[in-house]
């Protein structure tokens, strides 16, 4: 096991997923939490020498004027997803982590996220390069203060609206000068966080549907700085089931004519996705895998609706209309209901451990073996969950 201190810097550090992951991490560090939901705790990964939970130190960026403890309590009072005792048992740890959280950037995040930010965050005027420099100083200060050996940056912020980066250069050497020109640089905040991390040689994980590190020039930066990155959009519920069920239809030669999914939930993510521009980014991520698995495109519909009373509890209804032998139409329907943050948080902790281990092993560029964790995995078109997981196991075998 690693004996060094590993820093984890969370973007959107006081959001639902981040606060749930932090509460869970504290529970693991105190030995009070089981390992349910944690992929990295499966026996097949024991030989990897993953970092110990007790070695992890948390900091982060946030644009809202809230406290970590208050946001964690919302999972108790509004979402009714966590027992109050969990929050009360980690008050001191939450306060210490809160002291490590710094103001983030609002560059190209869209009007909805802007409206949720603190007045002081909205007043900041800086070029993309100036924002990156400020974010990087926060990372340096965190490394020095906590005497950390390594750092992993994870984007858990709200989903940004789509941005058009088609006019940006494909090489980092050509993109770097553009960052000083706010008029030419179309990059959104998620990409600036990725640059801030990887320019300093730190790994970056994009758990959101936002662009993050996907631009070609940022991928080039990762290789140049000998670091790694992965994403995007954590696969936790309905899309996870799609990636399991769709291969079944394909391998039984059952022709899927249409696949409709309706999603309702009421947390902050749902509130942001209630904005059609932000929703477009998410729907694209949830809807693309079927055609790649089937080799043809059935009629699809994905809806996401904000229902405030549900809090973090997310419900998805799916209706699959397929054609079987003798051309007879049949249907499969399922309902998936789960607590959004509790499904996502353990995957975030898993990704931190796997990514840190890959970086420690000297791996650079996109970590495609982590595809099973994402709806829109970078660097691969494989969406079959079983095959994605086998890729993770194959990577594991390199470590004996």
Can you characterise this structure?
- There is one protein chain.
- The protein has 16 helices and eleven strands.
- With 400 residues, it is α/β, with parallel strands linked by helices.
- It has two domains: 6-234 and 342-397, NAD(P)-binding Rossmann-like Domain (Rossmann fold), CATH 3.40.50; 238-338, 2-Layer Sandwich (Dihydrodipicolinate Reductase, domain 2).
- The strands form two sheets. It has a seven-stranded parallel β-sheet, sandwiched between helices.
- β9 and β10 (329-339) form a beta hairpin.
- The radius of gyration is 21 Å and the shape is globular.
- The model has no long low-confidence stretch (mean pLDDT 94).
Features:
Dihydrodipicolinate Reductase, domain 2, 42% helix, 400 residues, 11 strands, four-stranded mixed β-sheet, alpha/beta, 16 helices, seven-stranded parallel β-sheet, 2 domains
Topology at a glance:
Elements: E1 6-11, H1 16-29, E2 56-62, H2 68-77, H3 84-88, H4 91-98, E3 101-103, H5 111-116, H6 119-123, H7 128-146, E4 150-155, H8 172-178, H9 189-199, E5 204-206, H10 216-224, E6 228-231, H11 238-251, E7 255-265, H12 268-273, H13 276-287, H14 289-294, E8 299-306, E9 313-323, E10 329-339, H15 340-360, E11 365-366, H16 385-397
Parallel strand pairs: 1-2, 1-4, 2-3, 4-5, 5-6, 6-11, 7-8
Antiparallel strand pairs: 7-9, 9-10
